[in-house]
Design a protein that fits this description.
By secondary structure, the chain is α/β, with parallel strands linked by helices. The protein has helices spanning 15-22, 37-51, 64-82, 136-142, 165-169, 190-199, 202-208, 223-229, 283-297, 310-319, 347-360, 370-378, 399-413, 418-428, and strands at residues 26-31, 56-61, 97-99, 105-110, 125-129, 152-157, 175-180, 217-219, 230-232, 243-248, 256-263, 270-279, 301-304, 327-329, 335-337, 344-346, 364-367, 380-382, 392-394, 433-435, 440-442. The strands form five sheets. A seven-stranded mixed beta sheet has the order 3-4-2-5-6-1-7, with helices on one face. Strands 9-17-12-11-10-13-14 form a seven-stranded mixed beta sheet, with helices on both faces. The protein has a three-stranded antiparallel beta sheet with strand order 8-18-19. The termini are far apart. The relative contact order is 0.11. InterPro entries: P-loop_NTPase.
Length: 448
Amino acid sequence: MMKYNLSEPWLTLDKWQKKVLKTKGNIVMRSGRQVGKSAIISVKCGEFAMNHKDKTIMVIAKVERQSQLLFQKILRYIHVKNKDIIMGGVDRPTKTRIKLYNGSIIYCLPAGDTGYGIMGFTIDLLIADEAAFIPEEVWNSVIPTLAVTKGDIWLLSTPFIKEGYYYNCFNDPTFTSFHQSSEDCQRRDDDFLAHKKATISKAQYAQMYLGLFVDNLKRLYSDELIKKCCILKRKPKEYSRDFFLGVDCARMGENESTFEILDGTHKERIIQIENIITTKTLTTETERKILQLEKQYDFNKIGIDDGGLGVGIFDHLLENSITKRKIVALNNASRDKDKDKDTISLLKEDMYIHLLTLMEKGKIKLLNDDNVKESLRCILAEYPQDHKNKMLIWGKHSHITEGIIRACWLIKKKKLSIEQEAKELVCSGYFGMFFFGVGIIPASQLLF
């Protein structure tokens, strides 16, 4: 197996990467994970910036976190190759800009939902990381920034669904397309790929590791639904509320854990309070973070996946006197029996569908947070073509949604007193009508 220099990947380029480096004009790339697509684009961008005067380059992704990953690789490459070309002092590199002494500037911005913050630029080169996950409205805002310069577009991503600007670029003759499977990568880990192939669906493996567009996939949460629900701003914590915590621990090979805090005081009006992401943390640090949040919010229940790396955290919290009556195992592989039917369904899919129902019925409001929206947008429903197997639900950036669905499931299962149940009916505004003398009075008009 080929050795790979992680700190200086340009020293060990694959043949396909060398071809990308030499290609001129528009480029669209699709690949499996960890094949080196961002590595080669960072090299190509660095060379373009250093060898062309007075050029404006824009690096975008759906969220800031993603765009920063590629941006930092570009900065490192330029620093290693020619650090003296990088301006210093007040013009030194920032999180969003690299200025070079030859007059070229590299910007890094999140695209968000509309691309509004990018519309004022005139650019010579647009680079979009995880382009498949960028909303269509963004392209309508961003592409015109290249009109005057007739600049180039470089798109890189793992595939998503068979629609939209990114997908259409593969049939556009003005783009040179590249496809690279994880199985063809010279640095592949065969044991890792074999494990993934055995534990996830064929469609999921085809999309995430073979870099293929798959027919029987549809988004679970539409843009319209996300826009309708993700409207909240963060606000100070209120007291005497019923808080629930959903945790998704970083899996093997992934860097992020997420902590989703929801106010479930009223089951018909659920409110997301906070979305917290930690990166590259040990399980002991994740455990401490849960205890810290418990001290701050005094949760009704805490939901965690006790499979994989979460099992150690769950076991420790189960032994802790503070959390032992609050911690609940919500393992994606466990099953939940349907009381009305003689069937057993996967709990993971039940939790995802429950969130969908809450969103469609207007019973939950979520944070207007790009990371939350990105996670919801990437969730896919896989419909088996033989119609015999159950629908599967998954997504590349699912960790935030995984935390949200666990907190929502805990709220669904929470027990209420008779008085609380009555108040829930009133607060819902549409659960039944009450008779008083002559006529019918809507429950929403009653006050306790």
